[in-house]
Amino acid sequence: MEKTAAFEGSIPANYERYLGPFLFEPYALDLVSRLQDKKYPDILEIACGTGRVTAHIAKSVKHDTLTATDLNPDMINVAKKIIHDKNIKWMQADAMELPFGDASFDLVVIQFGVMFFPDKEKGLKEAYRVLRPGGKLIYNTWNKVETNEVIQVGRSIIESYFGDNPPIFYSVPFSMYDDRELTTLTRRAGFKSITTTLVKKEGIGPSAADLTKGIVEGNPVYLAIIERIPSMLNNIKEDVQKALTEKFGAKPIKSPLQAWVVEGVK
Hints:
There is one protein chain. The chain has 9 helices and 7 strands. The chain has helices spanning 11-33, 52-60, 73-82, 120-130, 149-160, 179-188, 208-217, 221-228, 233-248, and strands spanning 42-46, 65-70, 88-92, 105-111, 131-142, 192-205, 253-265. The protein has a 7-stranded mixed β-sheet, with helices on both faces. Strand 2, helix 3 and strand 3 form a beta-alpha-beta unit.
């Protein structure tokens, strides 16, 4: 069975280096900008990945404790090598069964992680469970892939190599783009005072070559390529880089991004 969320092996380092600055840094800064209003004594981050949001929370959100969790230990290992902060508690944890007691935290943050939950409502209910009354949830999800043009270009080329059986990974990250469904899902998990905000950013990367490396080798689609059509890896990279350069320029590379930010209160 194809691994849709297997961020392991070489993938986490490529994800962080080549996709991190372009895709995830702009939205990490956006999330943290929404948390400047007060102190959140105990903070939990779910699906922390390589720590893009974690680092900013540690520096600029008032708190006493910060616990950062991810399902994939290889992602956490990359984060630990980059972020040298002894006050951050890093843990492998399954968002479906968080290893924390009820009412343990004042804030739960999830950057681009809910899409990967096997049961999204259950995962948000777990976030609700571990929050204290009055605690805050904030998470984001990508808008339609068409509004994130660089990814759409890469995706269409990669999928063309697989004929009528493309990798299933792409059906996951861009699957939660309907703000009404996001509101309904969050309400069903128990939250109130829910807001959804469309946030438009510009991704900026050093080069089309770097971004190609991230698009092809910095996410689980790489596993599908290596497993099913390994001899095509270099061809795919050449085609993606050529298409990105033609549309967005070689360096630096810039492209519009769109994502939803959802906020709710317990």
